[in-house]
Write a structure and sequence with these properties.
By secondary structure, the protein is of the alpha/beta class. The protein has helices at about 30-45, 70-85, 105-115, 125-130, 140-150, 170-180, 200-205, 215-230, 250-255, 285-295, 310-320, 330-335, 340-345, 345-355, 370, 375-380, and strands spanning about 5-10, 10, 25, 55-65, 85-95, 115-125, 155-165, 185-190, 235-240, 240-245, 260-265, 270-275, 275-285, 300-305, 325-330, 355-360, 365. β5, α3 and β6 (about 115-125) form a beta-alpha-beta unit. α1 packs across α10 (about 285-295), α2 packs parallel to α3 (about 105-115) and α6 (about 170-180) packs parallel to α8.
Length: about 375
């Protein structure tokens, strides 16, 4: 069965204060060595189950800021994927881009290299908000970058937005959505700002230097985003993701459907399904350590664990519930050998009774109220 591949590029020009990803600010970075390390890891994985003999369905270059790398480096990785595994016809190959690192030449090079989908980290179209978020670009750079990507032939584009930023108003969010939709991407992601432990924002929050928006305001903004994006033809298909027909992010759908995926690069995670459960593992986080280990033997794992049936079932439920369509009861029973209601005892019945879950046409999904309390629902299964 074809699998999804995640390629992590950890370098950034600066670290955003809200970011808890494995990323490192650097003016200079070892692009050539890191690219060689990625290819060495791919070569090793191509010789091992469950990846050996399987083709790649999607590729996603994430970070960090992958658009800092030269198009030829990205092309070398894609070429290695084709030679070592084979890439399915029509596969979406996505690269995350900061609008401040993209120009016509880079976009043309990425197209030639095989990238066919760009995900722009716009976050906002208000420069004051961008400055607060620590972004290196301004709103006009986003407008130019997205327009240029469309001009050079990218049919699939995503624009990321963040809401519930301290100081942000409802009018600000409406303008952000209006501007993003006006650029005509086929996909928009709209996330609420979170304060993750270990980030600069988290430290500022603890010291009282940042006052988050209240839960009520955040919930209303989320409802506003869903309504406004739908008016522009962007249907919500996942809690934070909206697309026009055919624009869904196939790569992320593999995660939300609890399918196998391979991650290469510093700190990248992987999951290989075996029966109901499987195994997951993760790589060395430090880029220098990752490069050394990958170049030496093609493996740079720093840890891993088996996923038992109970854990796999819980993850299957809470990941699939992120999707607007939820999951089919028959799919759950086929994978885990028991009915959804029987597997989790009294939990499903209580959530149905509380109006957080709905069951329609053999599928289980979150209700409108359940969307507002998705984290609490997910906690019931893990």
């Amino acid at each position: 069965m074809a699998f999804s591949l995640y390629v992590h590029i950890p370098y950034c020009l600066s670290k955003c204060p809200y970011c808890d990803f494995n990323s490192y600010a650097a003016a200079v970075f070892p692009e050539q060595d890191y690219t060689r390390a990625l290819i060495a890891e791919l070569r090793r994985r191509a010789q091992e189950p469950p990846w050996a003999g399987e083709r790649i369905a999607t590729i996603f270059f994430g970070g960090g800021t992958p658009s800092l790398f030269a198009a030829c480096s990205i092309g070398e990785v894609i070429e290695a994927c084709e030679n070592l595994f084979g890439i399915e016809a029509g596969a979406k190959i996505t690269l995350e881009a900061n609008p401040g690192t993209i120009d016509l030449r880079k976009l043309l090079g990425l197209r030639r290299a095989g990238v066919n989908r760009i995900s722009f980290g716009a976050q906002s179209f208000k420069d004051e908000t961008l400055k607060f978020l620590g972004r290196i670009h301004d709103a006009e750079q986003t407008r130019r970058s997205v327009a240029t990507a469309l001009d050079v032939g990218f049919e699939h584009l995503n624009v990321d937005l963040i809401f519930a930023v301290p100081g942000q108003t409802f009018d600000d969010l409406v303008r952000d959505i209006d501007e993003a939709a006006a650029l005509n991407p086929d996909h928009i992601s709209c996330y609420n700002l979170t304060f993750e432990e270990g980030t600069a924002f988290y430290a500022a929050l603890k010291r009282g230097r940042i006052r988050p928006l209240g839960q009520r305001a955040e919930s209303l903004m989320y409802a506003l985003a869903r309504k406004r994006l739908a008016e522009y033809g962007y249907a919500m298909y996942e809690i934070s993701n909206y697309a026009r027909p055919g624009g869904q992010c196939r790569h992320n759908l593999a995660y939300w459907r609890a399918q196998s995926f391979l991650g290469v690069g510093a700190g990248a995670h992987s999951y290989a399904r075996r029966g109901p459960g499987g195994r997951r593992w993760w790589n060395e986080r430090a880029p220098t350590t990752y490069i050394k280990r990958a170049l030496n033997d093609g493996i740079a794992e720093s840890g891993g664990e088996s996923v038992d049936d109970r854990t796999a079932a819980g993850e299957f439920v809470f990941l699939n519930l992120r999707l607007n369509e939820g999951f089919a009861r028959a799919d759950f029973e086929h994978r885990f050998g028991r009915s959804f209601d029987g597997f989790f005892g009294a939990v499903p019945a209580r959530l149905f009774a509380d109006g957080l879950l709905m069951s329609e046409h053999g599928r289980v999904r979150l209700s409108e109220r359940g969307l507002e309390l998705a984290d609490a629902v997910a906690a019931e299964f893990v």
